[in-house]
Specification:
111 residues; mainly beta; 3-stranded antiparallel sheet
Length: 111
Amino acid sequence: LTTVPTDVLPGFNMVTVDVGEKDYLGIIPVTFQGGSGMNSIKKVDITLTRADGSIQTATVGTNKGDEVELQGTRGSGSDRGQIDRIEVWVLINDGQTYKVADVLREYRSRG
């Protein structure tokens, strides 16, 4: 899996969406952090592409602190797991869609 460059939201539509690290259970949190343009955001869509090629989609709310948890690929025991890809798109009120995040997350063991 590889990432591609992301878009830059115009300043008046600027928001932040954080993609957290994958935990030992394979859970990847995605959190809407708000920003100066949060009132112009219609929707935030997330796509998780797992190491095996399976896909999970979700939508996170547009209120500051809204969060979804995606089930990524788990490792086994203390082994490092395979890498998953998370892409985040923001749809603003005028119909434009911007990809604001495209990251890879690797399984982290408890140790």
